[in-house]
Protein: Septum site-determining protein MinD
Amino acid sequence: MLAIAGGKGGSGKTTTTLGLARAIEDRTLAVDADADLPNLHALAGVPRDPPPGGDPGHPDPTTPRGETYVAPAVRAPPDGVGCRLRRLAGYEGTVLVDCPAGAGPDATVPLRVADAVLLVATPCIAALRDAAKTAAMARAVGTPVAGAVLTQARLTPPGADDLLGCPVLATVPPAADPLADPAVGRSYDRLARALADRQKA
Structure:
């Protein structure tokens, strides 16, 4: 389970969650862990509410490899976001968690449950510092930081790796419609390969 996290809203966490999910050659589950400001469902074009009798927290086990299942945020999970995520630990595929922004308790919960964290930030110094705070939160709860991705960026600013305390694995160029842009898609392909290589190492 990989938490997609960053310090500020608008950094590209949700776009990265879906872009990376599409790039991973595995059955992939993208989960929205932001019950207060959910938008994964809107970007993915799926309903916010489950069908009658359905539960968006329980993916269809027949989802083919190479396809993505999107689990929208639950309005009021009776047992909390952490329990919902822990139930997905046995999912046969890759789980990506679109985390809330900031440093509050709701942002910390997914970091505790995840196996690793991918930082997302834009290349400005304020956004990088906020992402560094997210990295510190993850490490404080014992979750390793797998790396970072910079959105709205063509190059990695000097010193970004040192500031974040982890390698920048990919940059994603600006685009009017990122998920439909071929250059953005190639960036997420590179990110998926870099994450896979780090997992093997």
In short: Residues 182-200 form the longest helix (19 residues). The chain has one domain: 2-200.
